[in-house]
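tl;dr need the bound structure. longer version: we got a ligand (NAP) that a collaborator sent over and nobodys looked at where it sits. i said id run it. heres the input, straight from their email, havent touched it
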Amino acid sequence: MNNNPFSLVGKTILVTGASSGIGQATAVACAAMGARVIITGRNPERLQQTRDRIEAQCEAIIPAELTQKEDVENLVKSLPPLDGAVMCAGNSTTLPLQFGTREKFDEMFDVNFFAPVELMRLMYKKKVLQKNASVVLIASIGGTHSFMPGNGVYGASKAALNSFMKYAAREFASRKVRVNSICPGMVDTPLIHRGTITEEQLAEDAKRYPLGRYGQPEDIANGAVYLLSDASSWLTGHDLVIDGGFSI
Ligand SMILES: NC(=O)c1ccc[n+]([C@@H]2O[C@H](COP(=O)([O-])OP(=O)(O)OC[C@H]3O[C@@H](n4cnc5c(N)ncnc54)[C@H](OP(=O)(O)O)[C@@H]3O)[C@@H](O)[C@H]2O)c1
């Protein structure tokens, strides 16, 4: 008998964005806690790298471009009944307003807001999310704080996701499906290194964090494990800030 309330043994969990960064660490952490994990992302080689790290705990790899309607529908059709889902897929661009365009803003909202909303809608409607399932949305402290210049539309997309989370938590509670979000501060993943901010600027910015460093993907993955597990079974509609004290 397993008396550990944080255990994920017997649970089947979907992780989006599992080919990189926070999503990859979340898939690995869920597997380590005993879950069967279904991973999705776009890049087949990086998805395979995630599978190599979780081996037999990987139930399936289902590649999908989550801004494409057909891909999302096919993904949902391929899924077994789920005990949990972690929506990590997302993107960020540092883009001062004067250099932005409406098309770029639409792209940001498509991947960070509409993609997880549509996936959740279909998974709930098709009853892929079983009774007592737990959904975790990866939002950002950018939704509540101007953490880095040029991230206004990114922040707005995450604020929208966090707001949606609370409405979904209330609606889905009738089937005992829980919905929570995590708001990370800056986390050391490929995402923060492919923009216009230099390594020197990142190192300087990390000094603003009271705990003296940016997060590691595992810092966020461990929060997701808690929200997926029975240890959080009376928690819904909550945004869990994991930011090394940045937002104090
Ligand atoms: N890193 C941070 O500082 C930070 C802070 C706060 C919040 N977040 C949020 O955390 C989440 C994960 O970010 P990360 O830092 O782990 O970034 P990452 O390393 O760049 O990983 C992003 C993941 O999202 C997937 N993805 C992106 N666009 C997609 C699309 N249109 N369809 C399907 N999959 C897509 C990528 O798939 P491919 O590999 O196939 O491209 C990849 O697996 C994002 O929502 C991000 O906004 C990150």
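gonna send this back to them w/ a short note. The chain is about 40% helix and 15% strand.
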